[in-house]
Design brief:
heterodimer, A: alpha/beta, 11-stranded mixed sheet, 10-stranded mixed sheet, 10 helices, about 20% helix, B: about 250 residues, alpha/beta, Rossmann fold, 6-stranded mixed sheet, globular
């Protein structure tokens, strides 16, 4: 208990240091956030939403907000390790949550498109920001203490604004790297707004340079207007000692299509919250998740999908592979409002336990107020199919390779949805590396 | 090729095989027949090394080596092949990648170089042609959504590709119509040579019209109770198993 209070006080004290150097259009928002932050407490296992995960190891530490620490950089070679072979991208690199233009490429867009660093635009006092991202109304409903912590120290993040009808020809690859410094708090604040009929793909990659203990606390706000199309691939492959939390909000209008992937490999504790508000008809929302845990990793995925208007589809598929003492948690809520007739909502969470000590908790919830809907959810937990394993081995394939094949088979329905081939390859590679299995 | 001596095996503590003796030489085809529940499939699975079966007594000498302690994949690399009665569907692993991986492992074991992708493909095409298999099946996920006949054909394709020393066919005829039966048998006959051997496990005689056995054995209650030539199979077809069962002394 004492830890928690000290920890909270630490951040409030640091805010006072941060505030003095911070004079931008977002400072009102920051102030609002810290005031709200003070009135809340960090969650415990008694909170329904945090029941299955133990975040005490996170709260024991006082992390220094990176905007208050000395600037760090990384080598270009380090960044190039993360590039995808033969894939042309717009690359944006953030080091400890702060944009680094030297490591980034292809930053030149027409004047109507905004793509890049939030901080750069804040400094330019670009008046469009407030309007485009509806800053005034932010935080009104927000009671998430981690979201407030991020917003209080709001400083930088990836910004994307596409005006009507803008089609972006290649993916944005946003690399967030944490450097060797211990106990840093990196808080990217990503804002994405696609106007009607526009289209983009974003790869968010979160990595660490070394096996340090750091805390990445992200807020990502996504707004997709009529008939716009967005793919988001979030890859979290941070230090095995890192703490990683992301709160994503997705707002979708009529006939928009969003595909969102949460691919979690690294970090000691991972918590991904996704809130999707389907505020339109014929909306399509697809949430895919893949999480791999070994040792004593905890990976917690929370999704909340609200169907507000009729005729929309949501589809969720989360798959976990858990080895050693790892714990995987999935909590998915689907809320169908009274007006949202003809909703189709599907949710599935499947996990495979590779050890007797690994744990999987799954909590699906449906709350339906409309009477003409199709909703379903399902959760399964199991081991690798022994008969299938025997079948593969009976053809001469050694045990480890046979297991790898079955793991590949298990996750295939998520991986095959990744539409960028090079990314698919990379994910397959990461999976085998992470599970210490062999590739074939 | 394979010498099975006094083989006893349990499933979940129940003894299913109660002392099997069988010798199969190079170039021979042996049929194992018998009523349901006699232990035919158990024998096939025990030979392949399925972990659900526990060998409690006896020896399996395969090509000079006792394979009882060997893992299923080791046995396969040594040249033993089981065509499954119920081939497993594995979504997400393509048929050709699976075959490629298996073939590479077996070749590696034999000290042979891996095939180039081109060599592999031409071999695959050649073998698929024997079975009249559409190449689209080869690129699909392993057995996923295959019909019963397609699955059995796929087993024989694997047999032809891996070219083992000993092929054990576990009820390969079950669920096949007469045309499919003929094609699958042609595949097995294409595989057969004076250097390898085949054990055909079947309930019915009809498969043996196509894959002609040198010896026929009747398995009953975990033992081979009668052996003969292919005429024995014909007799079984006509008279059923009852007359053999009646010849057996009552077991306690």
């Amino acid at each position: 208990m004492k830890n928690r209070i000290d920890n909270q006080k630490w951040y409030v004290d640091n805010f006072n240091l941060f505030k003095s150097s911070n004079k931008n259009v977002f400072s009102t928002l920051s102030n609002k956030a810290i005031e709200k932050f003070k009135t809340l407490e960090f969650p415990t296992k008694k909170d329904e939403e945090w029941k299955y995960i133990n975040i005490n190891p996170l709260l024991k530490n006082n992390f220094l907000p990176s905007s208050l620490s000395a600037n760090s950089s990384v080598n270009l070679e380090t960044i190039e390790e993360y590039t995808l072979d033969n894939l042309d991208v717009y690359r944006f690199v953030f080091v400890n949550g702060i944009f680094n233009s030297e490591l980034s490429t292809g930053l030149d867009f027409g004047k109507d498109i905004i793509a890049g660093s939030l901080s750069n635009l804040l400094n330019k006092n670009d008046t469009r920001l407030e309007k485009l991202f509806d800053i005034k109304n932010k935080l009104q409903k927000d009671n998430n203490i981690f979201n407030l912590l991020n917003t209080a120290f709001l400083h930088d993040g990836f910004l994307l604004y596409l005006p009507k009808g803008t089609i972006i020809d290649k993916p944005f690859h946003v690399i967030n790297i944490s450097t060797g410094n211990n106990k840093l708090l990196n808080q990217p604040h990503n804002l994405i707004h696609l106007e009607s009929n526009s289209k983009a793909e974003i790869i968010f990659e979160y990595v660490s340079e070394k096996a340090t203990e750091h805390f990445t606390n992200i807020v990502t706000e996504i707004s997709v207007d009529e008939n716009a199309n967005l793919n988001v691939y979030k890859i979290q492959n941070e230090s095995p000692n890192a703490f990683h939390i992301e709160n994503s909000n997705i707002l979708q209008k009529n006939s928009s299509v969003v595909k969102h992937f949460s691919l979690s490999f690294g970090a000691l504790i991972t918590r991904n919250n996704i809130n999707a508000e389907l505020d339109g008809e014929n909306v399509e929302n697809n949430l895919y998740g893949l999480y791999l845990g070994n040792k004593n990793q905890q990976i917690d995925n929370h999704t909340f999908i609200e169907h507000i208007k009729p005729n929309s589809n949501s589809n969720e598929l989360y798959k976990g592979i858990l080895d050693d003492d790892a714990k995987g948690i999935f909590s998915g809520k689907i809320l169908v409002q009274k007006e949202a007739q003809k909703t189709n909502a599907f949710q599935s969470n499947k996990s495979v336990l590779l050890s007797n000590k690994a744990i999987s908790d799954s909590k699906p919830q449906l709350e339906i107020y409309a009477d003409d809907v199709k909703c379903s959810h399902g959760a399964t937990v199991g081991k690798l199919d022994q008969e299938a394993l025997f079948y593969i081995r009976s053809r001469g394939v050694p045990l480890e390779l046979a297991r790898s094949m079955l793991i590949r088979a298990f996750i295939d329905d998520v991986v095959k949805e990744i539409s960028i081939e090079q990314l698919r390859e990379k994910i397959n590679h990461t999976i085998f590396q992470h599970l210490k299995r062999v590739e074939f | 090729m394979i010498k099975i001596k006094n083989l006893h095996a349990n499933v979940e503590g129940t003894e299913i095989l109660k002392g099997i003796n069988l010798t199969v030489n190079r170039g021979e085809v042996h049929a194992i027949m018998g009523p349901n529940g006699s232990g035919k499939s158990t024998l096939a699975n025990v030979l392949a090394g399925h972990s659900a079966y526990e060998v409690t007594e006896g020896e399996i000498i395969f090509d000079g080596k006792n394979i009882i302690e060997m893992e299923p994949d080791e046995r396969a690399r040594e040249g033993l092949f089981l065509a499954f009665q119920y081939p497993i569907e594995i979504p997400g692993v393509s048929n050709s990648i699976f075959l490629r991986t298996a073939l590479d492992e077996i070749r590696k074991h034999k000290g042979e170089p891996e095939l180039t992708p081109k060599e592999f493909l031409s071999l695959l095409k050649e073998k698929a042609q024997i079975l009249g298999m559409d190449t689209s099946l080869i690129n699909r996920a392993l057995n996923q959504g295959f019909s019963g006949g397609e699955k059995k054909r796929n087993e024989i394709l694997q047999l032809l590709m891996l070219n083992p020393k000993l092929a054990i066919l576990d009820e390969t005829d079950s669920g096949l119509d007469i045309d499919a039966l003929r094609i699958v048998s042609e595949g097995v006959n294409a595989y057969k040579s004076k250097d390898n051997a085949v054990i055909v496990v079947t309930h019915y005689q009809r498969l043996l019209d196509y894959i002609v056995p040198d010896f026929v054995h009747v398995l009953y209650k975990g033992r081979i109770v009668k052996s003969g030539t292919k005429d024995l199979a014909l007799e079984l077809e006509e008279r059923g198993y009852d007359w053999i069962i009646k010849e057996q002394p009552e077991t306690v």
